[in-house]
Write a structure and sequence with these properties.
Blueprint (H helix, E strand, L loop, with lengths): L17 E3 L6 E3 L22 E5 L2 E4 H13 L10 H26 L6 H16 L5 H10 L4 H25 L10 H11 L4 E2 L2 E9 L5 H19 L4 H8 L11 E6 L5 H9 L6 E6 L2 E11 L2 E9 L5 H19 L4 H8 L7 E6 L3 H5 L1 H6 L8 E11 L2 E13 L2 E2 L2 H26 L4 E3 L2
Antiparallel strand pairs: 1-2, 3-4, 3-15, 5-14, 6-11, 6-13, 7-10, 8-9, 9-10, 12-13
Length: 457
């Protein structure tokens, strides 16, 4: 349900200050994380003598960054008052507060040693780069706009990559911190007020709900035995006194952290697949354990430190090699499961036995016109004519799991036509959203108590 999802009203989690590249309104993210720079003009339409408007820790937020953020909102259709007016100052103060919160979250995220997988960073950077590029009528116009900001295309992409990395870190930190956010109570009056302000009298988009079974190939016994033997060799080297980082760089197939010695950083149990989490939470600090089998392969795990509900963990992953015969075996199984679903067998029960447990079986109410954007073309095509009870698949999906083709069976559970929003239908979703928003606001307030903040606007 698109209108009930998203981030808190404070946009620190989801919105960076941005730099207007041209009058066309195309933008790129500009993070408020640099120290104060010499005065400069950064807009074609506004001449500014720069100054510091806030300091967070040892990092300055500049007045031009506020203007850039508001210029972007104006380019997107928001009504922004003229600079120098009391109304503009009021809006600017709200923007500064949001940028301060963003900086605090980013600094805290870096302290927790969260990691960003290279493939995630590259993929999101590519998406954002293309999104900006699509805002221009031609590649030449895009390049000219980038150059007008003082960057080459390569420099712009590097800049954008740093912004994407910061945003991913913040998002990870907020998700990881949800369990520690202050408890809050949401009243019925607050729910009704939110509904009245946001949805009452508006049209609910058509939406589809479905159940799914996702079947992935499994390696044959010979490959599994070979992978286990290699994992045991790695464990033996560790027990002989070799440093974990050295062994991880030599053995691990997890490219997202192999170069950092298998470092996963500080993680909560809920962030890990169940078998890995169970083994890690039972391990003694500093003692490597394994091999631990998950759907990714065999792991050697070492807990380096603990604090509250978190563990600082390193691991080595040995993936069993898979061939075409393994993919074909999964396809045959998926065909049989699809036939069973069509014959009336429970999707939930079949998924528990044969599906990937980390992927949700039930997917509720996705706006029909957002299917491709949110789930990709494979799901969009499979659900193009959603009839409750109809089964699609198995359909082959090569992007759902990194480096692996899987087979998806989909059963439509509900299709809702476009119509008016009704509070009784979404009361609990509204309560959940408000609970998170209020808890998030209090959480950020508590963080502010531990960080030096000097507001100068």
């Amino acid at each position: 349900m698109a209108l009930l999802q998203g981030r808190p009203r404070q946009t620190a989690v989801g919105a960076a200050a941005v730099l207007l590249l041209s009058a066309s309104g195309a933008t790129h993210a500009q993070e408020p994380t640099g120290r104060a720079q010499p005065s400069q003009s950064r807009s074609d339409t506004v001449e500014v003598v720069d100054r510091i408007v806030a300091v967070v820790g040892d990092t300055a937020i500049l007045y031009t960054e506020i203007l850039e953020s508001l210029l972007q909102l104006k380019a997107e259709g928001a009504d922004i008052p003229d600079p120098g007016t009391p109304a503009f100052d009021s809006v600017a103060r709200v923007t500064i507060e949001q940028l301060v919160d963003r900086l605090i979250l980013l600094q805290m995220a870096k302290q927790t040693e969260l990691q960003v997988a290279p493939e995630m960073l590259d993929g999101e950077t590519d998406r954002r780069f293309q999104e900006v590029r699509n805002g221009f009528p031609s590649a030449t116009a895009f390049q000219e706009a980038v150059q007008s900001s003082g960057r080459t295309l390569v420099q712009y992409r590097q800049f954008l990559r740093s912004q994407v990395r910061a945003q991913i870190l913040i998002d990870q930190f907020v998700r990881q911190s949800r369990e520690s956010m202050p408890p809050v109570i949401i009243s019925e009056a607050e729910i009704q007020a939110w509904f009245s302000d946001n949805l009452e009298g508006q049209t609910r988009p058509a939406s589809v709900s479905f159940e799914q079974i996702v079947v992935e190939p499994e390696a044959g016994q010979e490959a599994m035995d070979s992978a286990r033997a290699e994992a045991e060799r790695a464990l033996e080297e560790l027990r002989s006194g070799e440093e974990f980082e050295v062994v991880a760089r030599s053995y691990s197939d997890d490219l997202s952290n192999r170069d950092t010695g298998g470092d996963l950083g500080w993680v909560r149990r809920s962030q890990l697949v169940p078998r890995f989490a169970q083994a890690a939470w039972a391990a003694r600090t500093g003692t490597p354990i394994g091999p631990v089998l998950t759907r990714f392969g065999y792991h050697i795990i070492q807990v380096e430190n603990t604090r509250g509900g978190e563990r600082k963990i390193r691991h080595i992953l040995i993936r069993p090699e898979m061939g075409p015969e393994d993919t074909e075996r999964a396809r045959v199984l998926a065909v049989a499961l699809a036939d069973s679903v069509r014959d009336g067998f429970s999707v939930v029960e079949l998924s528990e036995r044969h599906g990937i447990e980390e992927i949700p079986v039930r997917v509720p109410e996705i706006p029909f016109d957002e299917l491709e954007q949110r789930l990709g073309p494979v799901y969009a095509e499979a659900l193009s004519d959603p009839i409750p009870g109809e089964v699609s698949g198995p359909v082959e999906h090569s992007n759902l799991i990194p480096d692996r083709t899987v087979f998806v069976i989909i059963r439509v559970t509900e299709y809702r036509q476009q119509g008016a929003w009704e509070l009784d239908e979404i009361r609990e979703q509204v309560r959940e959203r408000l609970t998170f928003e209020k808890g998030y606001e209090r959480f950020v307030e508590e963080l502010r108590n531990d960080v030096y903040v000097d507001m100068r606007f």
